């Protein structure tokens, strides 16, 4: 029986060194291979001209570099590109490429689906399918840069697509290591943001392993409400979560702030009383607040907060001295919620009608 080929796409520098060691090759091959794959976008070993023909042949027999496949790409009038990606398991995920004035941001997924069931999130409503492999995570960045080489290279990555990155830590950290590595994507740590709903023990461990930017999906500032809309709060309540955030900052020599994400849902978490709670619990935590108007989706009764409420909520926080931004949804809400888009998408894929899912993307 033919042995399965090893997919080297998600291998970090360290693992590639081990790999080349195992086939009696010098360690500098690891850097060479990283450059071919992640800087030049070359995945066919036969084109890697600084490898001997013998090595190229050998690699072709035992290994491969295989990104996931793009099923569909849709470009919005504002230039945001949404890619529907099919994994080998058949699961669908989505990534979103968002052009801004001075940067090109990629919103990526870490899991297909999510087990955490936040009540405002379509991904959560769909349930959990699988953890993405390291190759499937970094594969999204590879595809964003090389599948469609017409647009500028990705400058920023946010783990705000489908899934909870801190429930797939090892693969997420491997992909981060490649994002940072000078022979791979060479992004600075400030340009990578990991967003979590608050898996406290993993945040506590994270600081020893990485120092990328951290965003917390807070969405409620008291335990009663947060237990309801972000159910993982029952396991890791606000106090523990905020302590973990402080600890994360303390362990970093230079990192100054954490981003607090707060979706504004009409009549649920958007009153001035809620804003007061927020001010109270965030006191003493160096942070900036990112307000996100809720994006409605089918099957969820929540509605987006009214314009005036959003304004008042924001002004209150600003007056209290918090740097507060409002994530602007560009008409079609593409930026608003990658996770949500993916959730909607998956729902229609689940209906076993791929055409529908593509239509759905086109209408979002
Ligand atoms: N699981 C992680 C990362 C993925 S979700 C987390 O929860 O942080 C990332 C973000 O998707 C959430 O913080 C939220 O900002 C956004 N999101 C999910 N559903 C949304 C919705 N219906 N409207 C607006 N934003 C949404
Ligand atoms: Fe999962 Fe994040 Fe959605 Fe909550 S918001 S269900 S943690 S993907």
TrEMBL record:
- Please write the reaction equations for the catalytic activity of this protein: adenosine(2503) in 23S rRNA + 2 reduced [2Fe-2S]-[ferredoxin] + 2 S-adenosyl-L-methionine = 2-methyladenosine(2503) in 23S rRNA + 5'-deoxyadenosine + L-methionine + 2 oxidized [2Fe-2S]-[ferredoxin] + S-adenosyl-L-homocysteine; adenosine(37) in tRNA + 2 reduced [2Fe-2S]-[ferredoxin] + 2 S-adenosyl-L-methionine = 2-methyladenosine(37) in tRNA + 5'-deoxyadenosine + L-methionine + 2 oxidized [2Fe-2S]-[ferredoxin] + S-adenosyl-L-homocysteine
Membrane-spanning segments: none
Q: Name where it's found.
A: Cytoplasm
* Root EC class: transferase
Q: Give start and end of each Radical SAM core domain.
A: 100-335
Per UniProt, which keywords does this protein have? 4Fe-4S, Cytoplasm, Disulfide bond, Iron, Iron-sulfur, Metal-binding, Methyltransferase, rRNA processing, S-adenosyl-L-methionine, Transferase, tRNA processing
GO function terms (MF aspect): 4 iron, 4 sulfur cluster binding; metal ion binding; rRNA (adenine(2503)-C2-)-methyltransferase activity; rRNA binding; tRNA (adenine(37)-C2)-methyltransferase activity; tRNA binding
Bound how, and how many: what does the cofactor note say?
Binds 1 [4Fe-4S] cluster. The cluster is coordinated with 3 cysteines and an exchangeable S-adenosyl-L-methionine.
Q: Where does [4Fe-4S] cluster bind?
A: 114, 118, 121
Annotated S-adenosyl-L-methionine binding lies at 163-164, 195, 217-219, 295
Principal localization reads cytoplasm
Q: Which residues form a coiled coil?
A: none
Q: Cellular component per GO?
A: cytoplasm
Question: Active site located where?
Answer: 94 (proton acceptor), 338 (s-methylcysteine intermediate)
As cofactor, the record names: [4Fe-4S] cluster
| InterPro entries assigned to the protein according to its UniProt record, in alphabetical order | Aldolase_TIM, Methyltransferase_A, RlmN_N, RNA_MTrfase_RlmN, rRNA_lsu_MTrfase_RlmN/Cfr, rSAM, rSAM_sf
User: Extra info from the record?
Assistant: Reaction proceeds by a ping-pong mechanism involving intermediate methylation of a conserved cysteine residue.
What role does it play? Specifically methylates position 2 of adenine 2503 in 23S rRNA and position 2 of adenine 37 in tRNAs. m2A2503 modification seems to play a crucial role in the proofreading step occurring at the peptidyl transferase center and thus would serve to optimize ribosomal fidelity.
* Family listed: Belongs to the radical SAM superfamily. RlmN family.
> What protein am I looking at?
Dual-specificity RNA methyltransferase RlmN
Q: What are the top taxonomic ranks of the organism? A: Bacteria, Pseudomonadati, Pseudomonadota, Gammaproteobacteria, SAR86 cluster
Q: Which gene encodes it?
A: rlmN
């Amino acid at each position: 029986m033919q042995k399965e080929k090893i997919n080297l796409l998600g291998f970090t520098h360290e693992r590639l060194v081990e790999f080349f060691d195992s086939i009696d090759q010098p360690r500098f091959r690891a850097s060479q291979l990283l450059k071919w794959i992640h800087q030049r976008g070359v995945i066919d070993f036969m084109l890697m001209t600084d490898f001997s023909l013998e090595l190229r042949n050998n690699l072709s027999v035992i290994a491969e570099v295989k990104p996931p496949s793009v099923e569909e790409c849709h470009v919005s009038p504002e230039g945001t590109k949404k890619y529907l990606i099919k994994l080998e398991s058949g699961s669908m995920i989505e990534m979103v490429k968002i052009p801004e004035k001075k940067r090109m941001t990629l919103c990526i997924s870490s899991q297909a689906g999510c087990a955490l069931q936040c009540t405002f999130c379509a991904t959560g409503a769909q349930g959990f399918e699988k953890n993405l492999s390291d190759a499937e995570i970094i594969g999204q960045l590879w595809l964003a840069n090389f599948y469609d080489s017409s647009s500028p290279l990705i400058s920023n990555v946010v783990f705000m697509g489908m899934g909870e990155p801190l429930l797939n830590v090892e693969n997420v950290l491997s992909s981060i290591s490649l994002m940072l590595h000078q022979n791979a994507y060479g992004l600075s740590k400030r340009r990578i943001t990991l967003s979590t709903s608050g898996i406290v023990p993993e945040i506590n461990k994270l600081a020893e392993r990485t120092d990328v930017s951290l965003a917390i999906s807070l969405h409620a500032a008291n335990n009663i409400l947060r237990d309801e809309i972000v159910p993982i709060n029952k396991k890791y309540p606000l106090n523990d979560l905020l302590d973990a955030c402080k600890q994360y900052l303390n362990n970093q020599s230079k990192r100054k702030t954490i981003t607090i994400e707060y979706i504004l849902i009409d009549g649920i978490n958007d009153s001035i009383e809620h804003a007061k709670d927020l001010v109270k619990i965030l006191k003493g935590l160096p942070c900036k607040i990112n307000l996100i108007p809720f994006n409605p989706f089918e099957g969820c009764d929540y509605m987006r907060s009214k314009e005036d409420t959003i304004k008042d909520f924001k002004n209150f926080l600003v007056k209290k001295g918090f740097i507060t931004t409002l994530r602007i949804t560009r008409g079609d809400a593409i930026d608003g919620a990658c996770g949500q888009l993916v959730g909607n998408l998956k729902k229609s894929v689940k209906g076993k009608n791929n055409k529908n899912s593509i239509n759905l993307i086109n209408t979002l």
